[in-house]
Amino acid sequence: MLFGDDSYIVEFCEAGITSFSEFNENFSTHLLNRNMKELRNAGHKIKPGAQMMGADEIVDEYTKARTMLEDNASTEKLEQSVQAMDAICSAILEELNTLSKEYK
User: Fold this and answer.
1) Can you give the residue range of the structural domain that contains 58?
2) CATH of the domain at 51
């Protein structure tokens, strides 16, 4: 269904760009604010899309961050997780942007 329909590919990429951008911002904010409830909400929202795209790194880092919050990890450790997630999301966003441009 996805392949062979250029407009659907562009729409899929643009939806992914929005979702991963929002998630990355929410992840950073809620992790550093130690807000487990909102971190979980952000994670539950992105997990299906990440898994569908094979972006297991997102789910792995999110799970690691949740555990760090549960263990009351240092702010430095949380900041390292934010940096790791930012790198993962940036790579995904770059790929989605490139793919979207190819099909416009």
Assistant:
1) 6-103
2) 1.20.120
> How many domains are there within the chain?
1
Global pTM value? 0.91
Mean pLDDT of 2-31: 90
Per-residue pLDDT tens digits for 78-96? 999 999 999 999 999 999 9
CA 11 to chain centre: 18
CA 57 to chain centre: 9
Structure token digits, residue 46: 């992105």
35: phi then psi, degrees, rounded to nearest 5: -100, 90
Give domain status of residue 1, yes or no.
Answer: no
Q: Does residue 27 sit within a domain? A: yes
Residue 99 inside a domain? The answer is yes
Query: Is residue 88 within 8 Å of residue 58, measured between CB atoms?
Result: yes
Cβ-based neighbour number of residue 79 at 10 Å:
13
CA-CA-CA-CA torsion sign (75, 78, 83, 86): negative
Is the CB of residue 89 less than 8 Å from the CB of residue 23? yes
